[in-house]
């Protein structure tokens, strides 16, 4: 048999399917472009080495080539090449952002005078007030070597009256460079600090003084306004109620007690303190419905004018004011962008909440702050919003039963929203914070409506009425709502089994989980969504099989931790508490440092491990080690090392950072924080190469 000419020139079946798949995405391509952009950004942060000029040129060439192919094949499979081009753009944008925020990082231990302007106030994990300074001046240090920003912890009985946003202060402090991960593959504070232009962190135990008159300009004026608002709430709403009001309006958490933050975290209500999409949405929604409802009372306007558009335009200035009032953190910027996209969709006559709107917001956020992709705030907010849209859009296509109508429909919607948002954000929260709040749905059902109906609206109404002296009633009701939320947090946190600890997985789990969730959100077909579900299942399997290090060594050799059948044994019962707490949390262990130190030392280790955290303890450890193979972990480098001993001291740890050891029978695998970080601008290895 002979083929006809048409059959000879027919395109392959695979090509036909690819063309059909691309054509089927018409009108639904924005979510996939957001996925491609996020893939490029994530790929950049996963690189072991910072791309050099030749790699950048190659990126540019490939980007142009794939862009040309996307244009040439736009009628068939061009969208595939467009996604590749956008992914390359994501990597390029992330590197450009890395260079823009680059600043000096302190390369030695500094003690001396510190002067700067306060741009942020918060509290450390130990409860000490912290100030972040810009326009920094350090004693006998050239401006080109001075960090752009410095963060100080005010310890002891330091007076904090001068510590107000926008004030220029001076003190004497201990400073050092931001520390690396507490364990290989752990949270990279150096990378986090890099994108905050935070070149040094430290503490002071001496008084903080005003360095002169507060500087002028828009920035200091906004900071002073924020301080005035926080002070007004604290004066009119005493105690922790006023502190919560200040936190959710200005972002100032400096006055929150440890008990309050602990209860909110245990009950999965900590997100109410973070100025996020929830708060921005509540404010924007309140203004939108207030304006639209008021205009609806005037028939001549409601029947002849686009009141929906007018309400959206009226809500935008309030969203902008809230952005400025809250300090403009990355999380608040993300919430503002999402609100602005939603309002813009209303003005343009589009659906306000759709996957396309979420994709536009994600693209803008990633182009503006690509590093936010690596943070839990970005991941949890977009996961929750995307999941809610998927579920409620799906339900809207079904015929609503009676239970979804009227007031019962509101109750069911609230319950469903809490379940869906909790299911979407739960794995991400557990991955980042190593804990699962089992009664989070209950707590959110009881607290979030109060936040939306009373607290947020009335705080802003009260704020606007303060100049008129009419703020007492709205702030009293808002304070009652805050007390209700705190009471819910306390009661839920006290329930038996309220919190479970989970171990930290290997680093590959997060990107695989995120890819699976993104595919499910962007896909239109059941087959594509099935691929996303498979990716999430793979992430869950890898998480379940993730090993924890048998030995952990801190980057200053002051603490070691050995894995035992009873949990991790720690070499010290006090001191280095931050590192100890992170290790135990990553193990999924709820024990305190003192309890972990009281555990029996493991008798069957493949190697002998000695800890000499001080110079006085070194001779006994060296004598113990002599003549027997083993490791000696020390805080100071000894002059003589007996044969058979291996010493890990400051010189070694300066190169490696924290160390993790894994035992596989008689084999020992060592992993270092520096190797996992790679040679990146923010890493220890990068500074060593300079």
UniProtKB/TrEMBL annotation:
Subcellular location: Cell membrane
InterPro entries in alphabetical order: ComEC_N, Competence_DNA_uptake, DUF4131
Domain of life (superkingdom): Bacteria
Domain DUF4131: 59-191
Signal sequence residues: none
GO cellular component terms given for this protein: plasma membrane
Keyword Nucleotide-binding: no
The ComEC/Rec2-related protein domain, residue ranges: 249-521
Any Pfam family: DUF4131
Record's keyword terms, sorted: Cell membrane, Membrane, Transmembrane, Transmembrane helix
Transmembrane helix in keyword set: yes
Membrane-spanning intervals of the chain: 31-47, 77-96, 269-289, 309-325, 337-368, 380-398, 410-433, 439-461
Topology in membrane: Multi-pass membrane protein
Classification via PANTHER family: DNA INTERNALIZATION/COMPETENCE PROTEIN COMEC/REC2, RECOMBINATION PROTEIN 2
NCBIfam families: ComEC_N-term
Name of the molecule in the record: ComEC family competence protein
Taxonomic lineage of the native organism: Bacteria, Pseudomonadati, Pseudomonadota, Alphaproteobacteria, Rhodobacterales
């Amino acid at each position: 048999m002979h083929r006809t000419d048409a059959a000879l020139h027919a395109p392959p079946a695979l090509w036909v399917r690819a063309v059909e798949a691309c054509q089927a995405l018409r009108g639904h391509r924005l979510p996939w472009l957001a996925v491609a952009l996020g893939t490029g950004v994530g790929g950049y942060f996963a690189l072991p080495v910072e791309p050099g000029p030749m790699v950048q040129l190659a990126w540019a060439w490939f980007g142009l080539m794939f862009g040309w192919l996307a244009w040439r094949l736009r009628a068939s499979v061009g969208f595939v090449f467009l996604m590749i081009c956008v992914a390359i753009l994501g990597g390029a944008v992330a590197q450009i952002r890395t260079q823009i925020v680059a600043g000096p990082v302190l390369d030695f231990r500094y003690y001396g005078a510190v002067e700067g302007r306060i741009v942020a106030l918060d509290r450390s994990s130990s409860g000490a007030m912290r100030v972040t300074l810009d326009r920094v001046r350090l004693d006998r240090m050239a401006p080109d070597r001075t960090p752009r920003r410095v963060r100080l912890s005010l310890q002891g009985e330091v007076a904090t009256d001068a510590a107000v946003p926008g004030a220029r202060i001076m003190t004497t402090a201990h400073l050092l460079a931001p520390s690396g991960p507490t364990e290989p593959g752990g949270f990279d504070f150096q990378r986090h600090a890099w994108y905050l232009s935070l070149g040094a962190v430290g503490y002071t135990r001496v008084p903080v003084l005003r360095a002169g008159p507060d500087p002028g300009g828009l920035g200091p004026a906004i900071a002073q306004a924020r301080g005035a608002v926080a002070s007004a709430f604290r004066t009119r709403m005493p105690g922790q109620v006023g502190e919560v009001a200040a936190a959710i309006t200005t972002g100032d958490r400096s006055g929150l007690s440890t008990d309050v933050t602990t209860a909110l975290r245990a009950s999965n209500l900590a997100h109410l303190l973070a100025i996020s999409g929830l708060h921005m949405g509540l404010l924007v929604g309140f203004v939108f419905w207030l304006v639209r409802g008021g205009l609806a009372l005037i028939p001549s306007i409601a029947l002849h004018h686009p009141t929906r558009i007018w309400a959206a335009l009226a809500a935008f200035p309030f969203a902008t004011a809230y952005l400025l009032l809250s300090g403009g953190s990355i999380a608040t910027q993300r919430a503002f962008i999402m609100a602005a996209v939603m309002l813009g969709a209303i003005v343009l006559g589009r659906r306000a909440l759709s996957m396309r709107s979420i994709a536009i917001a994600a693209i803008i956020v990633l182009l503006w702050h690509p590093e936010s992709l690596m943070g839990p705030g970005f991941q949890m907010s977009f996961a929750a919003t995307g999941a809610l849209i998927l579920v409620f859009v799906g339900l809207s296509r079904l015929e609503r039963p009676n239970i979804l109508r009227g007031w019962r429909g509101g109750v069911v919607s609230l319950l469903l929203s809490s379940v869906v948002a909790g299911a979407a954000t739960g794995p991400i929260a557990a991955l980042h914070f190593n804990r699962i709040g089992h009664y989070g749905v209950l707590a959110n059902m009881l607290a979030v409506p109060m936040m939306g109906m009373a607290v947020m609206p009335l705080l802003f109404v009260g704020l606007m009425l303060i100049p008129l002296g009419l703020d007492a009633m709205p702030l009293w009701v808002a304070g009652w709502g805050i007390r209700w939320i705190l009471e819910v947090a306390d009661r839920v946190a006290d329930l038996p089994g309220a919190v479970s600890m989970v171990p930290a997985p290997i680093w590959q789990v997060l990107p695989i989980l995120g890819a699976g969730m993104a595919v499910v959100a962007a896909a239109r077909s059941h087959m594509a969504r099935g691929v996303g579900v498979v990716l999430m299942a793979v992430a869950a399997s890898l998480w379940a099989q993730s090993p924890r290090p048998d030995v952990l060594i801190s980057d200053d050799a002051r603490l070691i931790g050995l894995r035992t059948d009873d949990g991790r044994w720690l070499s010290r019962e006090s001191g280095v508490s931050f590192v100890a707490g992170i290790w135990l949390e990553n193990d999924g262990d709820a024990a305190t440092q003192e309890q972990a130190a009281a555990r029996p030392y493991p008798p069957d280790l493949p190697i002998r491990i000695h800890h000499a955290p001080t110079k006085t303890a070194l001779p006994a450890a060296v004598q113990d080690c002599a003549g027997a193979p083993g490791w000696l972990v020390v805080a100071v480098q000894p002059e003589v090392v007996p044969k058979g001993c291996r010493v890990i001291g400051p010189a070694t740890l300066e190169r490696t950072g924290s160390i993790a050891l894994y035992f596989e029978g008689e084999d020992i695998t060592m992993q270092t924080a520096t190797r996992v970080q790679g040679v990146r601008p923010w890493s220890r290895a990068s500074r060593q190469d300079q």
